[in-house]
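Researcher: We're teaching a course module on how sequence relates to structure. For the next exercise, students receive a sequence and then see the predicted structure as tokens, so they can try to spot secondary structure elements on their own. Here is the exercise chain.
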Amino acid sequence: MNEKIAKEISKLLSLVLRHSPETIQIKLDENGWTDVDKLITQCNKSHKNINLGTLEYVVENNDKKRFSFNNDKTKIRANQGHSIQVELNLKEVKPLEYLYHGTVAKFLPNIKSEGIQKMSRQHVHLSADKETATKVGGRRGVPIILTVRSGDMYEDGYEFYLSDNNVWLTDAVPVNYIEFQS
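Model: And here is the predicted structure for the students to work with:
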């Protein structure tokens, strides 16, 4: 498959499965799943020529593993990153001692005063390694990597979840758990 087309389809899936299913007149259930046949039909009406093979390719080859199928591939959903309310049924997990958050300089004043907030999403997204956090921060400019003392947060009662695509999730990161690079 042409990588440019795969990237366009991935962006469309991110939009409709994480933020605006109404864009192509589909509905997500309470857990974020939608019917694959309906998704294909609606995508083909308004955007791209998509079939099950195309979706399988995008799900398998997405660099961030943003999407997943159910066991029989009749349903598809985004693994995390929703700005709409869905229940992903994530189980609380003890995090690594340190996790990382990629950002850019323009957000630092707010982070230094309010900590890391989920903003329009359901959770704050954290990475297990600096390389992934660098990629995330680099999407908006020159990346700045913040170290989060997640082990201390967990010991103090904060909950953490690990999505199917290995993104660490929490509700917020208070500023006193963030190590800023000087």
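Model: If you want an answer key for the exercise: The radius of gyration is 17 Å. Residues 34 and 108 are 37 Å apart (CA to CA).
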